Amino acid sequence: MVRTDNSQKRNSLIRKNVIYSFLTKGWAGVVQLLMVPLTIFCLGDYRNGVWLTMGSFLVWTESLDIGLGNGLRNRLAVYWANGDMERARQSVSSTFFTLILVMLPIAAVLLVLINTSDIYGFLNVSPAIIGNLREVYTVALILVCAHFVVKFIGNVYLGLQLPAVNNALVVGGQTLALVIIFILSRTKFTGDMLMWVAVANTLSPLIVYLVAYPVTFSWKFPELRPSLRYFKRSMVGELFGLGFQFFLLQMAGIVIFASSNAIISHVVSPAMVTPYQVAYRYFSLTMMIFTVIGVPFWSATTDAYSRGDMAWVRTSMRRMHLALLAFAALLTLMLLVSGPVYRLWVGSKIHVPFLLSLGMAVYMMIIITSLCYSYFLNGFGYLRMQLITTLTSAAVYIPLSFAMGRSLGVVGVIFALCLINLPGVIINRMQYDRIVGGTARGVWKR
Q1: Predicted TM-score (pTM) of this structure
Q2: Residue 331 CB contacts under 8 Å (≥ 6 apart), including other chains
Q3: Residue 258, pLDDT above cutoff 70
């Protein structure tokens, strides 16, 4: 009876979060669609390609938390489920203050690199077109580093099985950035547009999280408010143990994501980053929708697994398999109508080859299928096989994409993405089957 009640409560919470997340993610999709033509209008295809490449590198900085955010997410879910408020607050406090200590030296090193290295040559950017690339990077980096610390609030809500709130915080920052860029596009602004676009995109999320901090820790969950008194070095080790595996997974994924723009910029041209990102933004709407459905299962799986409720896990995966079939049909439809959609969305000046769209649709299906199993494996806390496959893929991707990019152009880069991500889908499925079937041993259960 207790197990049934827990399953019903878990399913009810997932349903609520999926509904609320669809509202926020739906708006996030609209924001994403509107942001692309507005930014291209403000910057042009060359400067827009430079900004997109710059933004992908800034994502690296935001993810250098050595896994503490995802470690907090998993441990907080366990403490909250067991009613251990003392350790729950210790985990939040230890994460917050450790993030500050982690970011300070990282920011110092990156600022030195930006202002001493040849970033123009590395990104194949002409100084005659963009003369203040270092200044733009410096300002954007400072704002991103501040955001790096306070965005752990989203992990708190994820650990409390409230991903809809985390989604609302993310889309709030995106919406504010859209408003600022819309105003810039409608005014006779004569200043440095690249700088203002960078500031709009990096300052906006920081403002949202700064507002969310007192709302979260003074009003909604004062029992979790960070305090130096609750900082525990032993807790950092506990968070870091599991979280570092998440960090390695995250960094491997970012190596692939961030390097794609840089490889296209270096091997082809910064201008070609724009059609690549247009295709990515279009087809990634499916991944955005899937994460709305899938993310609530992560912490819910942690809760179910800690209670030994494997029947709930099996039932949930059957539902996810049905969702995969629906997403395959959706991606096929999006591919068939992609040409007219691109022209309506960004105009006829930005040409996206059909093969690029085909490759991007296949890539998204591969990623969505992999995520289907990853959310459950992450909830179980068994990451070793994901680490092996993802790190191997990241190591292979850069030389493979350089080679295919040189021979096939931007289409070769997306084909390389498909090739290196496919093995992960197969291995994730194999590990999930072993864990649920009770046959996982050795590296399959680590």
Answers
A1: 0.69
A2: 283, 286, 361, 364, 365
A3: no
